[in-house]
Amino acid sequence: MGMSRLIVIACFAAAAWGLILEGNLSAATATPTPTPRATPRPKPTPRPRPTPAPRPTPRTTPTPTPTVTPTATPTVTPTATPTATPTATPTATPTPTATPTPTPTATATPTPTPAFASDNFNRPDGGLGANWTAPPAAEQTLSIVSNQVAASVEGFHCYAFWNANSFDGDQYSQIKVVTVGDWNGVILRAKAAVDEFYLGIARDGNGFDIYARDGSGYHLLAHNSSTAQVPGDFLRLEAVGSGPVNLTLRYNGIAMLTYADSTYNFTGGSPGIGMFSPGTNLRFDDWEGGNLGADTQPPSAPGDLVARALGVSQVNLSWTASTDNVGVTGYLVERQDPGSANFVQVGRSTGTSYNDTGLAAGSNYSYRVRATDAAQNLGDYSAVASVTTQAGVAATDDFNHADGGLGLNWAKPVPASEQTLVIANNEVTPDIEGAHCYAYWIGNMFSQDQYSQVRISNVGPWNGVIARAQPIIDRFYMAFVFGPNDYRLYLRKDGLYYDLSNGNTETWVAGDIIRLEASGLNPVQLTLLRNGNPVLTYTDTTENLTGGSPGIGIYLPSGDHLAIDDWEGGNLGMFGILLPETQEPSMRGNLVVTALGVSQVKLSWTASTDNVGVKKYEVQRQDPGSTSFVRVGTTTGTSYADTGLAAGSNYSYRVLVRDARGSQKEYSGVASVTTASPTIGPRAAR
Description:
By secondary structure, this protein is mainly β. It is 6% helix and 44% strand. The protein has 4 helices and 49 strands. The strands form 11 sheets. The protein has a 7-stranded antiparallel beta sheet with strand order 5-8-17-10-11-12-13, with no helix packed on it. A hairpin with a 2-residue loop joins strand 29 and strand 30. The longest helix has 27 residues, at 65-91.
């Protein structure tokens, strides 16, 4: 195809754009500082249906079609004809001569429309090459950097589509995400002269969007923020049909978004790639695009179905993913109720888990799951998994009642709750953003061995549950999700927050169940569970909060629109306590450290014995961000108070023992503590 052919993918630089907004791109200043995290946030109007008057009409000038087809037919046909004629005359055997004539014609026909094209970008840094063309929407150029694709200029919308082949209208485009951010994407049905295409993007770390781009701007068709994105995952956009055009955005083969477009109805064109990198050096790699053929192959059966009882009324299901030749679009969940001989469908999931709610306490349920794909092929069922819901004293609230207050069964702990939790669209959210909001259940009495759990509707700082909350007394335990890989246990006490334990190995998504269990006294064992699995523990040997009731909590930064749903809380009992396999000790060696407010820490340890006699203990501290321990004081006793510390900061300590001669004997183990804070800061989990 011509190594001599070099087409630099031009990007038509218009005024610098900052964000994608529904309907158009907002104009920026001459030195753009776009903040594209606000880009697809217009969730209140996720499906605009404008009829843009300025939409370009030159659909009758398709660019890609005339370029490829005419060359193949005339080249082959004249060569075959003269060869056949002279051979037939002397031999008088026309049979073999006729054979070569149709052979070259048949071979040449399918060449212009291959099933797919691909590009791994493994070549020298610079332009994408002759196989790529920029559509009118491109403001700057996409380039190859270290065998990956990057924006040549940060802060601009950059696109390119594949021009080396022509494709059917039913087509797909797919990339491997190398870095996560705002935003990597793919385009479909793009043309050289007409400013229109469909755009699918991965953004924000867990957001997905489908847009239509035409001459009047960008139009948000569908949005979802339910799945955490990881480098190395695959993003794919598919377009099928016309009037409507059925669009599917997949992440690792699972459908994140679907949309039927009857408004813009773009036809023809080619698949390609797109990026907006707001100064974050985004990258993607390994592009593939092509025709979507007929799919008649069903997905495989899901594996390893597990059912876990989450309290008295909920069950969590999890399974391993099915495979499919094109891609799995979702899973159908079926349940067999107590006393019934039949399974009925109770839900659908695009991921590999499902939470079933509204069940009867102490009852046995059986489940099975099957996968489906975009062509509605149904796979085989998984194996059946059965589970019995827990029995005991518990309360539930699905919040499916009128917008407004939570109701008479709920009370607000003060002064911890700065504003009020309310019901909106059958979910719970704060009435005022930017404040800490809590509520606990007063409709029943509970033992102090209790649990509280809630389904998180979306992930962000922060939503979760509380336990052992009481009226008037400003003290309770808290568990919450702060981000996809940030979850924590806290103690609220007398106007301050004490960070007890943090985790970062689990990836939380919308729909997960967060559960806090508090059991025992002196010490109190705290356990944070995700979908029934213990993921974080802490043993409280100092505060030992007693009594109280379970509840809920949210801190909602302005614009995040956090919400929770389907709460349940009650007594643990022997059946309900889930003990972790391993438990992080609160004491390292013989050293115990306790935060006393925002600026002080108390250390205590057991006395060392020595044949010469212990002279003194040297206390050493490791400050936040430091890799070294420094001496902060000495004592002849077995306790020490360290003061002048920063609020909400993590410190580590160790104690050096010296004998009466001044000789160094040994170090204690290392113990860490986080000082209290008047609020909970948006930092990453340790």
